[in-house]
Write a structure and sequence with these properties.
This protein has helices at residues 18-29, 45-53, 77-82, 100-110, 126-137, 151-165, 206-209, 226-233, 241-257, 263-278; strands at residues 5-10, 34-39, 57-60, 74-75, 87-89, 95-97, 118-122, 141-146, 171-174, 186-189, 214-217, 237-240. The protein has 281 residues and is an alpha/beta fold.
Length: 281
């Protein structure tokens, strides 16, 4: 039996941690598979889809997450809700999934961070959209805080979530006013503030941090942002985006093979992936 082939596609697709992560996940599960990088521009799907269909499965990154959808037979419920696919399982049915939401939830669960109560999400981009939808689905009380120049984008996103999920309220504020807000069970940073190379910045003040119980930062480079460091210094539970990056890859393997993993093994992979990433910066 020939070895199954997997890949990550996107355009342009240069350095990515996906091959490192997925190779390790195959080793941990005992399943056989090779994993490569393929550059596929959105307009190239008609000519390249036959080759992609020969793969056992593949991951999808920007700008292909919407472009791949017309070439699939079926979407799972989350992919249909988000209108976005980052994992494809080929077979009799070519099915698209989005693993980012479950990767986020698994990252929280692995770090004993409850996803309930009063949640503040900073930002309104693509990853913030995932967090807002998941918070709404979980029945959380949501506050979305953005820069003043992003208010229109935030309000459009909030209206979309309320309409699609039938919820009545998403509280909003601008970042300069977040000091006036109350306490939060979970603060989620979905902005690039604190990302390499500008690692000295924090999206909120330490005063805001001390009014939170838990912190999640979607940034994965560096492994611990100043936000995470400040949270831990104040005795909070805090986790960074590398955990989500690896856990969403884990969900891909659950989809492809039904693989199961030990949390300790994944925690080690998160650390190893961070160390590997640092070699390239």
């Amino acid at each position: 039996m020939s070895e199954r082939k997997f890949a990550v596609i996107g355009h342009p697709i240069g350095h990515t941690m996906s091959p490192f992560i997925h190779k390790r996940l195959f080793e941990l599960s005992g399943e056989k598979g090779t994993y490569t990088i393929l550059d596929v521009a959105p307009e190239e799907f008609p000519e390249k889809i036959s080759a992609l269909n020969e793969l056992a499965g593949y991951n999808v990154t920007i700008p292909d997450k919407q472009a791949v959808i017309p070439f699939l037979d079926e979407l799972d419920k989350k992919a249909e809700l988000y209108g976005s696919v980052n994992t494809v399982r080929n077979g009799t049915v070519r099915k698209g999934y989005t693993t980012d939401p479950d990767g986020f939830l698994k990252a929280l669960a692995a770090n004993n961070i409850p996803f309930a109560g009063d949640i503040c999400i900073l930002g309104c981009g693509g990853v913030a959209r995932t967090f807002i939808y998941e918070a709404a689905l979980a029945g959380c009380n949501i506050t979305v805080s953005v820069r003043p120049e992003d208010v229109e984008i935030r309000d459009t996103l909030a209206a979309e979530v309320k309409e699609k999920l039938g919820i009545s309220d998403i509280h909003t504020c601008i970042l300069p006013d977040i000091e006036k807000e109350g306490s939060f069970d979970l603060l989620v940073n979905a902005t690039p503030v604190g990302m390499y190379p500008k690692t000295d910045a924090m999206p909120v003040s330490e005063g805001v941090i001390t009014r939170c119980r838990n912190i999640f930062d979607a940034i994965y480079n560096p492994l611990e942002t100043r936000l995470i460091q400040a949270a831990k210094a104040n005795g909070l539970r805090a986790v960074g985006g590398m955990s989500m990056l690896v856990w969403q890859a884990v969900v891909s393997h659950e989809i492809w093979d039904g693989s199961e993993y030990k949390t300790d093994d994944i925690n080690q992979l998160i650390e190893d992936t961070s160390n590997e990433l640092e070699k390239n910066f």
